[in-house]
Write a structure and sequence with these properties.
The chain has 343 residues and is α+β, with helices and mostly antiparallel strands. It is built from 15 helices and six strands. Helix 2 runs antiparallel to helix 7, helix 3 packs across helix 6 and helix 9 packs across helix 11.
Length: 343
């Protein structure tokens, strides 16, 4: 029965490691919902960890029911979309619902968030306080509790959500396939292949934790492909894009990213271009140019500092590439976007 498999995953060290990496990186709580014949069970990581604001909201009569109703609506929309869904809960926080499917069947869901993407002004906070009208709670206590809510940069929030969605569904698929195979008589070779696939996944998550938390690189022998039952080309490219997103400002190479996704450089280069429709180099340059545009538009950093922060090593190359794409040099672009004097 598919619903049994997600329940078993709560003790799985691969999923637990993913939850730990995600929480340490973002500070956002993860809850795993297990549907079953005796009702829904919810496991939290960290265990029973909630902000003071959520505790306050749920202490009101019907508060917890309203929270769960928002989650049900969010999950329903996620399932209609065929992927994760970001939504605002009734208490003004940003949440995410991630459906977990196995062989086309709904076996559970993952929720994260309980954050805001920008600070609320005094008037907005007062309006939220009035709308919720929590009994026996004054504005001062309400505002103090709301101050415990984590503020997350929108771009980083979207990146973390996409990565969690990708990895969580892949873990469930890989682990459930192994459990199903163990229920039938297998040849020794097939059982060995399944165990090697599980070991491969654990290595991927270990590398991911080092990458996201700012660790160094590790040398691993590349594999030509993920193998039967492994990640698809799209999943590999998405993981590579996540690596680029976290490291574009550093001196990374195609070989670095290929190693991060356990592929040889030549195979990875060909796969990336086929799936993404553009070469790895052009994708990396585009991401660096995007960072440069944002820094030019939103900061007063000297242009040479912008070049370095965006990941370019050669100022002249950056200048030529930027002008070719935008039609104007960086200084003129900044003046046009900021309406002032360029630096």
């Amino acid at each position: 029965m598919p619903e049994q498999f997600l329940e078993l995953l709560k003790d799985n060290k691969v999923l637990a490691q993913l939850c730990e990496i995600y929480y340490q990186t973002t500070g956002m709580v993860i809850s795993i919902h297990h549907p079953g014949t005796d009702g829904e069970r919810i496991d939290f990581y960290p265990q029973e960890q909630r902000s003071e604001y959520c505790k306050l909201v749920q202490s009101a009569p019907g508060g917890q029911d309203l929270c769960r109703a928002c989650d049900r609506v969010g999950l329903a929309r996620a399932r209609r979309k065929g992927g994760y869904h970001i939504y605002n809960c009734h208490a003004g926080l940003v949440d995410v619902a991630i459906p977990i499917d196995y062989r086309g069947k709904e076996i559970g869901s993952i929720y994260t968030g309980q954050v805001i993407l920008e600070e609320l002004g005094q008037k907005q906070l007062q309006a939220l306080f009035t709308r919720l009208a929590i009994p026996r709670v004054g504005f001062e206590r309400f505002a103090a509790a709301f101050a415990s809510v984590k503020v997350v940069d929108q771009a980083r929030f979207l990146f973390c959500v996409r990565l969690l969605d990708l990895m969580a569904n892949y873990i469930v698929k890989a682990e459930n396939e192994i459990r199903l195979q163990q229920q039938v008589v297998l040849k020794d070779r097939e059982l060995h292949r399944q165990e090697m696939e599980k070991a491969h996944l654990e290595k991927t998550l270990k590398d991911l934790s080092i990458s996201v938390l700012g660790g160094g690189r590790r040398n691993r022998p590349p594999a030509e492909s993920a193998g039967p039952g492994g990640p698809s080309g799209l999943q590999i490219v998405e993981t590579a894009r996540a690596f680029i997103e976290m490291h574009y400002s550093q001196d990374i190479t195609l070989e670095d990213v290929a190693r991060a996704v356990f592929l040889s450089p030549n195979y990875f280069s060909s796969l990336f271009k086929r799936v993404a429709g553009a070469s790895f180099k052009s994708s990396l340059v585009d991401r660096r140019l995007q960072a440069a545009r944002e820094l030019l538009a939103d900061t007063t950093l000297p242009i040479k500092e912008v070049v370095t922060r965006a990941g370019f090593k050669d100022y002249n190359y950056f200048n030529r590439t930027f002008r070719a794409q935008e039609g104007v040099p960086p200084a003129a672009y900044r003046t046009r976007r900021q309406g002032g004097v360029s630096t």
